[in-house]
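question for whoever is on the cluster today: can someone run the full assembly for these? two chains, 730 residues total. i dont have access anymore since they changed the login thing
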Amino acid sequence: MASMMFTDCSSSTAAARLLPLSRSRLHSDCSSIFIRRFVGPHPMGTNSLRTILTVHSSSSSHVIKATFSAESSAKVIDGKAVAEKIRDEITAEVSRMKDEIGVVPGLAVILVGDRKDSATYVRNKKKACDSVGITSFEARLPEDSSEQEVLKFISGYNEDPSVHGILVQLPLPSHMNEQNILNAVSIEKDVDGFHPLNIGRLAMRGRDPLFVPCTPKGCIELLHRYGIDIKGKRAVVIGRSNIVGMPAALLLQSEDATVSIVHSRTKNPENIIKQADIIIAAVGQPNMVRGSWIKPGAVVIDVGINPVEDAKSRRGYRLVGDVCYEEARKVASAITPVPGGVGPMTIAMLLSNTLSSAKRAHNFQ
Amino acid sequence: MASMMFTDCSSSTAAARLLPLSRSRLHSDCSSIFIRRFVGPHPMGTNSLRTILTVHSSSSSHVIKATFSAESSAKVIDGKAVAEKIRDEITAEVSRMKDEIGVVPGLAVILVGDRKDSATYVRNKKKACDSVGITSFEARLPEDSSEQEVLKFISGYNEDPSVHGILVQLPLPSHMNEQNILNAVSIEKDVDGFHPLNIGRLAMRGRDPLFVPCTPKGCIELLHRYGIDIKGKRAVVIGRSNIVGMPAALLLQSEDATVSIVHSRTKNPENIIKQADIIIAAVGQPNMVRGSWIKPGAVVIDVGINPVEDAKSRRGYRLVGDVCYEEARKVASAITPVPGGVGPMTIAMLLSNTLSSAKRAHNFQ
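^ ran it for u. tokens below:
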């Protein structure tokens, strides 16, 4: 695993190339973003960076103000705290919906095969649903199932009025056509937001998508909750994946940012990144974005979660983002830590999409 | 009409703001791009710029080489010549298809109401179809038709195997829901390429759209035919309309350009435009892009067609692009004139989309 070679910012040279990010590489779905390569204990508890943050919540504006740390100049954007707040809000809404119209939102997950990591993600989703009062449904099919059998389950969930969101856990066994299967999910229940019709509506002015993909939605939600202006700002998205970079760019543009997308074929990416007021890094390259690439005062949203060797860690590795945090926090005005930044937002947005879907289905305001 | 205020480059000040481009403003459909605001004689014949160009066609690569004019440093990208060549190619393919499988591609146009400009566009489409051997179908409905009546015609054409492309002439009467009507066109016959599903597929890597919108497709085709590299280049698209700017940006990105989109909310657009190797201007502001905004050697594709007052002209106006041509041609390495650049490409791409649709429907290679 190439990304294990870099143990600190300095060893990730400025010449690091941007590599294409594949769906299966880092962020294959709405809840797996921060534990994609691991099965085991959750690394979130080790993030000491959060201790430098004091969170004030303004109930009217949802804007969180962070104090400055004595150690760094950047505000730390605490995704874990924001995600917890969102989950509390969802819990309250689910409860209100149940009380007022007797409907409980439902999320169905389809798991094919025995991959341990996939089983972990599915378990985490179930737990997250339980924690906010969303009903979870699960279909487990053996590895050698036919595409037809999977489609039958999707069709069943499409018809089931108690299911408001459907997720097919990826990757699917190699004998299946992923596109066929994902396209079979009803657009009204596509809580992942990956259906081309949802992406098309996201791209078009005046056409609202039914769902926005969870991770990019989480990035923008962090900007909103921290009161960071987007309109008129220069934004650079690093990475153009279907699940993070591309929809993040479309979202920023829909909020009137001037957006540039940097990718594996971009020459001298640092020159463009340096112009950005807002950087969203989603490329899966540890510590690629150096402090010197960042305009003083820029806001940095780091979607990457990369394991790097760390002999001092009990596990032998630690997780770092696409941005060299130690350098960036001295230049940026606000930054998401890794872990504890974008990661926790992804599953919160999945729950949010499921709730929205149920509300829409029952015309509940 | 604000755009009539500017009569030359110098009077279009550098402080000109980018305005949002509405669908009905300039480029409402695949064939109307250069005569949007006029009903009357076609202004194409007056373009003296084409006389400075020598066109060589290489049958193997389709690359056209242009000679340099003594007067300017930029190659003139002759859209009229390229469009004629494409129409010849389509004519040959339509003929081959008819000979080999007895199928003739068909394009249906639905016109509601009595707008003279719309009637002109529909007539032009019919003529263009006739010239390449595509069968044209036409439905004319009175202004006070119901949405249901229009939908009935769309449904009929959706079912009709001799129709391979359907265009609804816009604007529709104000009592109709444009989105409902456009969404009713079968995705397999959406030769305009505006269906959100086609736009979504255009945005997503690994998902090919069935059709690409005609004007942006024409811009990219011009780059291809003139052998202009896109991969790895900095591209700036000016304007983010659903019909030109946004899909043009997606197309450039799919060809590995590093793309920035400049729009009405962009601060200091000239700073970003100046970085571009390729500029696509589609904002509908006469002479907005000045020579000083252009990097020496950049390629300029000017989609704008704006009428400006001209007392010397018999009609009292002349047409100019979004780019100040006189200034830009001294800086750019290649540039499209207005008229005679992108305009003629749009209808050629409509014919091309119709042919492709017929080939796909009949699995004809």
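summary bc i know u wont read the tokens: The mean pLDDT of chain A is 86. The first strand of chain A starts at residue 55 and ends at 57.
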